[in-house]
Amino acid sequence: MEQRFFLGESSIKELIPILQEYTPDHIFLVRGKKSYEKCGAQAVLESVFVKLACGVTEFFDFEANPKIEDMEKGLSLLKEYPTNMIIAIGGGSVLDMAKLLRFFYSYSGNPTGGEFEKKRQLIPLITLPTTAGTGSEATHFSVLYKDKVKYSVEHDAILPDVAIVYPKFTYGNSKYLTSCTGFDALAQAIEAYWNVNATEESDKYAAKAIKLLWPNLPLVVNSPTAEARNKVSEGSYWAGRAINITKTTAPHAFSYSFTTDYGYPHGHAVALTFPFFMRYNIGNSDILLNPNINPYLYKIKMQKMLQWLNMECVDVAIAMKEYIRNLGLDIDISQIDISKIVSSVNIQRLINNPYKVEAICLEE
Fold it and tell me: Could you report the per-residue pLDDT of 154-174, keeping only the tens digit for each?
């Protein structure tokens, strides 16, 4: 399915024309709890609903990092109030929840693995992210947790029909939230670029994302301007488009236990090991390089990326640590039980890493 997307300060103007195309008489709105009003989305959406004269059912009674119990609660509500449009507005957890609800309303199957069977037509889904950014509005997979174990539900039908990336919804985000979500987007872009599954198309999206995110994320965190926030919002979308093709690699694979066992928000959890894997994936021996990757071409790609990051003549791990700390993210893991992190690694993401990951010391 080809997604329609709209980026920038004028993107919100597309919402009413798009909704008029679908002529919904009842909308199922998946939203954040406090963020919905705080970011300005409530005022915008309520005026839209009045203009369309449609019914609305709201679902916001769920925790961050979508859990299977919360999804089942949402499905019950969705079935109770027949709808012909789903709108999701919020951060990554909100968008993931909406994608899961839309999918499992129409498809049967085990959410934690197995085959899926289509039972009914998909309900159209429009996503409006309020963070920059998880990239969830641009991907055909969603995160789902069961008993503290993270699963990735993947299917073409999970990709939203429409993404409207309106950067003004992110303007009021706190410094820490901006750092976490922004670094997640940057990590996605870099991981897509060095990925085993990288293609010419994903490289194009990843490069665009890196060039937007790398110089502007520190500005958004430390001295935000509308221009910088707009560029970070756009960059996060392209990062999502990149990982929609490649998926993520080792830093994401190791991140999930930091969240479930130690409470780190996802983007911060990814940052904890990123300097290590930055060095590991750029300065490693060809012996451990995935056999499907051409060593010569890979080195050229990494040299090109280091030029974008202004890291030509420095230790990449040290440079990345400095960058992350400048975002206000603490990356000291000396008090973390590394054996617990390693035992919980996500193999689905690890196999996408360009270099084979064997016995390693993450505290290096």
Answer: 999 999 999 999 999 999 999
